[in-house]
Amino acid sequence: MRMKRIYSTRALQDLALCIIAVMFCSTQGTVMTNNQDVELGGNVTLRCTLIQHHDIYQVTWKKIKTGNDENIATYNKDAGPSVLKYKDRINFTVWSPQDSAINLSNVSTEDNGCYQCIFLSFPEGPAMGQPCLSVYDDLKSSISYNIFGNHLSANCSATGFPRPNISWFPPEVDKKETDIVNPNGTLSVISNIFVSISNVEQELICQVIHRGKTKIMKLPGKEKDQTKNSFPVVPVLLGVILVILVIVVGICCWRRQRKKHRGF
Description:
Layout: H1 2-28, E1 31-33, E2 36-39, E3 44-50, E4 56-63, E5 70-76, E6 80-83, E7 90-95, E8 99-104, E9 113-121, E10 127-129, E11 132-148, E12 151-161, E13 165-169, E14 176-181, E15 187-196, E16 204-210, E17 213-219, H2 222-230, H3 233-262
Parallel strand pairs: 2-11
Antiparallel strand pairs: 1-3, 3-8, 4-5, 4-9, 5-6, 7-8, 9-10, 9-11, 11-12, 12-15, 13-16, 14-15, 16-17
């Protein structure tokens, strides 16, 4: 009797797992996809594979855009593959009713985003997948500063894609940011601060975050910077050299005049 109860419990558990699996498949769809990362200017392949077998007569690829999706390629069972947009950069690498893959070459920032593959069948209806493409460009950053009297003006700039984020520490520092869209679609962020040196007790830190990575760039604080600015080394050296040159020239002229007077 106990064994029957164990078997009946297991049967109920198996039945529950089957029901959950069926519900999961019905809500998640039957298309397998993979998201991709690609560097700006590179090549990448997006692929959709139909897990369940259906009588597919057409596969359509779309670029998902805000407000209006864009058809970019289709594969028809009778007509074959057809590229509708970006014909010089997109081509099919796999085309079949159950499996479809497109290759994008010379990827631009406009290619960033999600795509949709739609398998059309009758009478089952459409089965859809949504692979997403993350386009990136390596970070380029720099920091510079100038001192005007008792004030410091500093610029921290970062260029990349997606947009880099800039923060200053201490956080109470006021900043002004400017965004610039470059011809290749990358974004340049320029962050400027203007502070009184007397208020800068510690190092000023510019923190740039890009694609989950952090880069730290530092400016010297008041204590470290005072030594640099209290003794202007370069102007003093130039003054010393100038004085020495004047003395040497003076001695040469004096000796030449003496020779003339002596008749040499």
